[in-house]
């Protein structure tokens, strides 16, 4: 009852000879290791071999020279007038790791999750660009709604950024009379933006603060920064 299955022969060109005459009716059959290695070696060599006209050996000294050239260009850009634009593009490409949590100064605060060197862009103050008239109307409406904190940042005489309901983590930065950051207005593609810069080295889990520079008013807002040279009020 047991019949020995005839061995499947191979043709002269290396292809397997199909007994039934059709490869699909043969089903699955194993490939010899020799044939498999021969096929893999041929395909690997074909894949790794570059075209004849592009076979150029890369010299390590050439790579090092290119890297030094890139560093030189970067340093020259940084020292030019376009340094803010370059830093802003870097900030967009790789944002700083920040988090907001409860602050000992006031309510919520923004903290660094990575070391930040001095004179670096920390975060952009994002919000809606509105005019002074709209800002006055919104300020009254926010008071009626019970929103005590103000998240409006003046860019110039006509433009104010409102981050109360459309903003990012920058609105959680608290005021300090001895801050580790400062705010600066830069122009990117003919549009003014507010960016928070670091004044000094900022350690991990250190709270990010800057001076609000509120105008002097009769009704004083108490300052709770707790620094040695605290002025006592925000305005």
TrEMBL record:
Source superkingdom: Eukaryota
Domain Post-SET: 219-235
InterPro entries reported for this sequence: COMPASS_Set1_N-SET, Post-SET_dom, Set1-like, SET_dom, SET_dom_sf, SET_SETD1A/B
Compartment(s) of residence: Nucleus
SET domain location: 96-213
Keywords: Chromatin regulator, Methyltransferase, Nucleus, RNA-binding, S-adenosyl-L-methionine, Transcription, Transcription regulation, Transferase
GO biological process: methylation
The protein's name: SET1B methyltransferase
Organism encoding this protein: Cochlearius cochlearius (Boat-billed heron)
Keyword S-adenosyl-L-methionine carried by entry: yes
Gene3D superfamilies named in the record: SET domain
Keyword tRNA processing tagged: no
PANTHER family for the chain: HISTONE-LYSINE N-METHYLTRANSFERASE SETD1 (PTHR45814), HISTONE-LYSINE N-METHYLTRANSFERASE SETD1B (PTHR45814:SF1)
Gene Ontology molecular function: any one: histone H3K4 methyltransferase activity
A Gene Ontology term for the protein's cellular component: Set1C/COMPASS complex
């Amino acid at each position: 009852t047991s019949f020995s299955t005839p061995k499947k022969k191979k043709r002269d060109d290396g292809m397997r000879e199909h007994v039934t005459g059709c490869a699909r009716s043969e089903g699955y059959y194993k490939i010899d290791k020799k044939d498999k290695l021969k096929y893999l070696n041929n395909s690997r060599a074909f894949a790794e071999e570059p075209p004849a006209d592009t076979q150029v050996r890369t010299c390590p000294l050439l790579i090092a020279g290119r890297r030094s050239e890139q560093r030189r260009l970067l340093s020259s850009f940084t020292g030019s007038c376009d340094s803010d634009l370059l830093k802003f593009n870097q900030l967009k490409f790789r944002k700083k790791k920040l988090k907001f949590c409860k602050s000992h100064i006031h309510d919520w605060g923004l903290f660094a999750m990575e070391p930040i060197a001095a004179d670096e862009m920390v975060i952009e103050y994002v919000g809606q660009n509105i005019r002074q008239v709209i800002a006055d109307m919104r300020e009254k409406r926010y008071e009626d709604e019970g929103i005590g904190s103000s998240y409006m940042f003046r860019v110039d005489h006509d433009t104010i950024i409102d981050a109360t309901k459309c903003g990012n983590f920058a609105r959680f930065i608290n005021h300090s009379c001895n801050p580790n950051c400062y705010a600066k207005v830069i122009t990117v593609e003919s549009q003014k933006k507010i960016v928070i810069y670091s004044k000094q080295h900022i350690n991990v889990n250190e709270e990010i603060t800057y001076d609000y520079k509120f105008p002097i008013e009769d009704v004083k807002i108490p300052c709770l920064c707790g620094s040695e040279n605290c002025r006592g009020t925000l305005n």
